Amino acid sequence: MSEITKEQVLHVAHLARLAITDEEAEKMTKELDAIIGYAELLNELDTDNVEPTTHVLDLKNVMREDEARKWIDREDALKNAPDQKNGQFRVPSILD
Amino acid sequence: MSLFDYTLKELQEKLHNKEITVTDLVDASYARIKEVDDEVKAFLTLDEENARAAAKELDEQGGDNPLFGIPIGIKDNIVTKGLRTTCASRFLDNFTDPLYDATVVSKLKDKKTVTIGKLNMDEFAMGSSNENSAYFTTRNPWNTDYVPGGSSGASAAAVAAGEVFFSLGSDTGGSIREPAAFCGVVGLKPTYGLVSRFGLVAFASSLDQIGPMTRTVEDNAHLLQAIVGHDEMDSTSADVEIPNYTEALKQDVKGLRIAVPSEYLGEGVSDEVRESIKAALKVYEDLGATWEEVSLPHSRYAVAAYYLLSSSEASANLARFDGVRYGVRSTQAENMIDVFKYSRRDGFGEEVKRRIMLGTFALSSGYYDAYYKKAQKARTLIKNDFDKVFEDYDVIVGPTTPTPAFKVGEKVEDPLTMYATDILTIPVNLAGVPGISLPCGFSSEGLPIGLQIIGKHFDEATIYRAAHAFEQATDHHKQKPALGGVKG
């Protein structure tokens, strides 16, 4: 059944925006393989005619008026930021 | 006799008759923390100056509601305005000034409770032992070699140790009930949607619920009453009529129909736990309730379905921790994508990374149908099991955990063994129904054993009724751990 490879783990780590070392990738390959292997227990179930459950309650879309409301001001929004400048979050350059 | 020997009702009488003040209660709380928290290690952050000022103000104002002036602890994944909120993660180590209160915190402030501090947990609520905290491992007050459970381990331990009168925890796959069982306190996971999740740092949004942790069932009902209700800030919060939970306690359990799933007393459940549950069923018989064995045939698939679904949701929810708007940013990164990658590498612990990876994998192209969607279908089958049993029975009763607390370090090496700890609590979250854990005995090693009572959607009242009747017929809840040389 499932055989997770180190290459897959490195790819998933990139998708998840996690930097991992080669050593960590090897450890995680084993662990994920064991967990996924266990999860394949679900293949015993015949689910052809079963609807998936995304939510247990009958939820309806909740709508509200599209109007501006006071929430937090700019100064507050920035006060926990690792870096800021001129009232904005500052990050390294996105384009080379 | 310490103030912690009284119920909320008794404390309110004493406050009302001016035998004690709110300041006395807050003093007692901090004194007890100074006495035992070196051993228990429940608190990540204390808010002593503000709590004492609030107590003084409340003493001047006066007031009477069941929660007035009561010192509480709050799990550190529930946002508190101006009070450090870390989720026990290095990523949020510097998140000292949150901008708003979670809805449950605002509701408790309206009831004039006093927040003593923030309680340790498994990082981002991922864990069953508190060993995944990035800071330190909270200990079980009954024996500090043992874990308090998780992820709301410190919320349970602080109540059991008499550091606060009650606390708030959160439960995604058992994170209130398992530690309540391990620490010998009462913990309720409400029906999904009953309590607003606004301000609860999201782990798995279709499963997470905040709930009360207390010494007694009656206290638990009072605390739940204060935090329930529709909230326009949480679009999954249910707009349902709220019953009077403490009124429900007055009813007896004559004629109550109890279902006992054979899967919950089977393989993996220790003899001592099984015997305690059988003794509990005998108590119910004597009280006039009836019980029959039933089957929840898809129980064995719950852990696998849960880890795929909760990790998938977590991988999406934790994408917000990017090192841009709050939290710790890696100083090594020179471009944007490395800010994300390095900050998350440095900020997240091993278990959190493992689950993000599992979830990202299960949602990734080519695997979505085989894993994520398959797990959602398994969830339907598990939910149907509960619906079917509840056609003929009022509550489901069984153990909360297969064994009492295990030793610190015993299960850290093997994620799958740790995950199996929650085998009896996870199905409840998948079905979205409410469940409580309350003390029903002790192991030969003196560790508490928890009785789990599961109810129909939004039928917390019947759970409380059943739990209260059992509690009042027994004295397990009156036992206290010996800590700091003095019984709490």
From TrEMBL, chain A:
Superkingdom assignment: Bacteria
Catalyzed chemical reaction(s): L-aspartyl-tRNA(Asn) + L-glutamine + ATP + H2O = L-asparaginyl-tRNA(Asn) + L-glutamate + ADP + phosphate + 2 H(+); L-glutamyl-tRNA(Gln) + L-glutamine + ATP + H2O = L-glutaminyl-tRNA(Gln) + L-glutamate + ADP + phosphate + H(+)
Keyword terms: ATP-binding, Ligase, Nucleotide-binding, Protein biosynthesis, Transferase
UniProt-listed Enzyme Commission number(s): 6.3.5.-
Transmembrane segments: none
The UniProt record lists the keyword Nucleotide-binding: yes
One annotated GO biological process: translation
Family per similarity comment: Belongs to the GatC family.
HAMAP family listed in its UniProt record: GatC
Name of the molecule in the record: Aspartyl/glutamyl-tRNA(Asn/Gln) amidotransferase subunit C
Lineage: Bacteria, Bacillati, Bacillota, Bacilli, Bacillales
From TrEMBL, chain B:
Top-level taxonomic group: Bacteria
SUPFAM superfamilies per UniProt: Amidase signature (AS) enzymes
Keywords: ATP-binding, Ligase, Nucleotide-binding, Protein biosynthesis
Database matches in InterPro entries: Amidase, Amidase_dom, AS_sf, GatA
Gene Ontology BP, a term: translation
Domain Amidase span(s) in chain numbering: 24-463
EC numbers, comma separated: 6.3.5.7
Keyword Nucleotide-binding: yes
Pfam families, sorted: Amidase
GO molecular function: ATP binding; glutaminyl-tRNA synthase (glutamine-hydrolyzing) activity
Record-annotated active site: K75, S151, S175
Catalyzed chemical reaction(s): L-glutamyl-tRNA(Gln) + L-glutamine + ATP + H2O = L-glutaminyl-tRNA(Gln) + L-glutamate + ADP + phosphate + H(+)
GO cellular component: glutamyl-tRNA(Gln) amidotransferase complex
NCBIfam families assigned to the protein according to its UniProt record, in alphabetical order: gatA
Assembly with partners or alone: Heterotrimer of A, B and C subunits.
Its biological purpose: Allows the formation of correctly charged Gln-tRNA(Gln) through the transamidation of misacylated Glu-tRNA(Gln) in organisms which lack glutaminyl-tRNA synthetase. The reaction takes place in the presence of glutamine and ATP through an activated gamma-phospho-Glu-tRNA(Gln).
HAMAP family: GatA
Entry's family note: Belongs to the amidase family. GatA subfamily.
Stated name of the protein: Glutamyl-tRNA(Gln) amidotransferase subunit A
Source organism of this protein record: Terribacillus saccharophilus
